[in-house]
Every structure is written in C-alpha cells, then in structure tokens.
Amino acid sequence: MDFDIYREIDRQYSIKREKTENEIRMKKRRLEENLPKYYELEQKKNEVAIEYTKELLTKNGIDKEIAEENMRIKVKKIQEEIDKVLMEAGYNKNYLEPEYECSICKDTGRIITSSGEKYCKCFIQKVIDRTYKQYNMLKLNEENFNTFDIGYYSDKVSKEKYKSEVSPRDNINKIKKIAEKFCNNIDNKDQKNLLFVGNTGTGKTFLSNCIAYELINKGYTVIYQTAPILMDMAMEAKYNFDRKSENRIKYENIFNVDLLIIDDLGTETLNNNRFTELFNIINTRLLKNKKTIISTNLMLNELSQEYDERVMSRLIGNYIICKFIGDDIRFKKKKITD
Ligand SMILES: Nc1ncnc2c1ncn2[C@@H]1O[C@H](COP(=O)(O)OP(=O)(O)OP(=O)(O)O)[C@@H](O)[C@H]1O
Ligand SMILES: [Mg+2]
Ligand SMILES: [Zn+2]
User: Among the atoms of ligand 1, which is closest to the Cα of residue 172?
Assistant: First the structure.
C-alpha cells in the first residue's frame, strides 16, 4: 500500500528492527572481546553452517534431508555449549534474544496467514492512533485495571443519595467483573456490548480506558473517541473519501476495529445526517460482531427522548447496561490533593 501513513509507519518499524539488530550485534561483539570461549564456539558454529551449505548443494532428496538434519543437530549442540558458556559467565539465558515490542509479528508489522500476508494488529493500531490522534487522549498508563482504586467508591448504602439498594462499591465491583469478562470474551458472538450510564465523575471513562489498555495489550485494535469528535471525524472522512486515502482508512476503521469506544454520547448535537451515521455505525458493528462500548451521562429515559426508537432498541437489546453510581471522584481526588 502506498498511503503515506502506512509508508511512514513501515519506516518506523524498520528503524526499530535495525535498532534491535544493532543492539544484538553490539552485544555479540562485546562478548567476543571478553569471552574467548564464546568467540571460539561462534566461529565453530559458522564453519559448520558453511560446510553443510556447501554439502547440501551436491545433494538431493532423502540425502539432502539427512544432511540438513545432521546440520541442525550439530548447530544445536554448539548452541547449547554457547548457552552454557554464557550462563557460567553470569549472563541471562535470553541475553542475545531480540526484545520485540510485538511478539506476534516480531516487529515486522506483518503476519503470514493462510490467505497471504496481512498487517499485524499492532500495525493497524498504530494507523488508528495516528489517524484518530488518540495517543494523548487515552490515558492508558494511568487508567488501567492495575491503578483501579475501589476506595473511591463508598461502601455505604444510601437509597436517598445514590438511588440504589446497593452501595457504590458493591455496584462497581459488579461492573468491574462484567468489564473483565468482556475483555476475555471479546471475540464471542454471545458477548453483549456495554453501555455505561451514570453521573459525571463516576468512572465511566476510566473503566473504558482499563478495557482499552487490556485489549490493546492482548493485540486487539481499539478506537477511543468522544461522540462529538467521532461524528465529526466520521462525517469528514465520509464526504472526503476520495480526496485523501487517509480518510478511507479512517472511515473504514470505525467499522472494522475490534473495539470502538464512544464516550460522552449525548453531548453532541445531532442533525439528521449525523444521526443516521451513528445508527449506521452501531448497527453495522452489531452485524459484524464487532464490540462497542458507549458511555453517557444521560439516564435511559433521557436517552430515549434524545434518540429515536431504532437506536434505543439496538442499545437495550444488545448491550449490558452498567449503571455507575457514587460520588464525583473528580471532586474526591481534588480534595485529597488540595
Ligand atoms: N476506579 C478508579 N480508580 C481511580 N481513579 C478513578 C477511578 N474511576 C475514576 N477515577 C478518576 O476519577 C475522575 C473521574 O472519572 P471519569 O473521568 O472516568 O468519570 P466519568 O464517569 O467518565 O465522568 P463524565 O461523565 O464527566 O465523563 C478521573 O480523574 C479518573 O481518573
Ligand atoms: Mg467521561
Ligand atoms: Zn505485531
């Protein structure tokens, strides 16, 4: 593909690979200088490889296979000796293993499938991050299941305050379990989508981030966007489809990404076009079994006033409704730092 973004990300990948390879080369050189035994064995390994490669040229069929197998055994033996030498000198077993950011594609950005070469998900995620400029939006390192602090949710039941029979803490624990199950079940056709409703500051965006973090780490692709910006971007990309190839990628990814998070639904102003587009996005993703998380400040009855029946019936039928209750955590956090 000759799209600028793809080309640029490709370049980043080859820079990264070169860097990794360089590091290994440097490490090897240093070992060769400091560990004569290591140097000797590496030389021997190379010699064996050269010798057998020559021999292989003169052989065919079963003879060739036997020669290949012999070479493998010999190289493996020398490698074991090398490992031993390294270990005795105090080096970790994986000292010379390249450290890949993505173990699936070994930082090539490509994977081979039965239907040919494909982009690895890590590559597609980079395209998404770039086209949606979402790096600075997602607070993945700050807001994830490891930093999830249950302490912000009161363990007191107050029907008056929270309009619920359970405490905010019991409530959030239940939602957290639903979220964790969602992460493990993302490919499952029977797994429903998630609708987060609740007052401001009750942790809807935080939990969305936790899920995004978890899934990106598992190698899934995620778009996170607030509803107004997402709808702006979608409309922009749709109507300028031909002008820039970037627009096509951007638009198509809304439908194809493994998880789409639409935050703050209800804050955007919807004209007819936008409304139809939103419906199109929600509906197409349902049909494709691609998961979506929607959060909103509005309560369900307000939502149904705002959106027409088509959207509401999709939401209610295919989404687990998670009602966030509790005090405004933003306020609580502020009091602590003040
Ligand atoms: N489980 C949690 N552990 C620690 N901090 C949290 C947790 N949940 C939320 N917070 C913090 O509380 C603040 C408000 O949370 P968040 O933005 O998720 O609320 P929200 O429900 O999305 O609010 P709004 O409806 O206004 O968008 C943020 O600073 C967030 O980092
Ligand atoms: Mg929010
Ligand atoms: Zn990859």
Answer: 1
Q: In this predicted model, what pLDDT tens digit does every residue of 15-29 receive, in sequence order?
A: 999 999 999 999 999
Determine the pLDDT at residue 245.
76
Of 41, 38, 70, 76, which Cα lies nearest the Cα of 53?
Answer: 70
Task: Record the pTM.
Answer: 0.82
Give domain limits for the chain.
Answer: 4-88, 120-337
Closest-lying ligand 1 atom to the alpha carbon of residue 263: 27
Q: Ligand 1: residues whose CB is within 6 Å?
A: 143, 148-149, 152, 198, 200-206, 264, 297, 329-330, 333
Model confidence over 237-257: pLDDT tens digits?
A: 888 877 677 888 889 999 999
Separation between Cα atoms, residue 111 and residue 69, nearest integer Å:
27
Closest CA to 296 of 277, 278, 272, 271: 278
Q: Place domain 120-337 in its CATH homologous superfamily.
A: P-loop containing nucleotide triphosphate hydrolases (3.40.50.300)
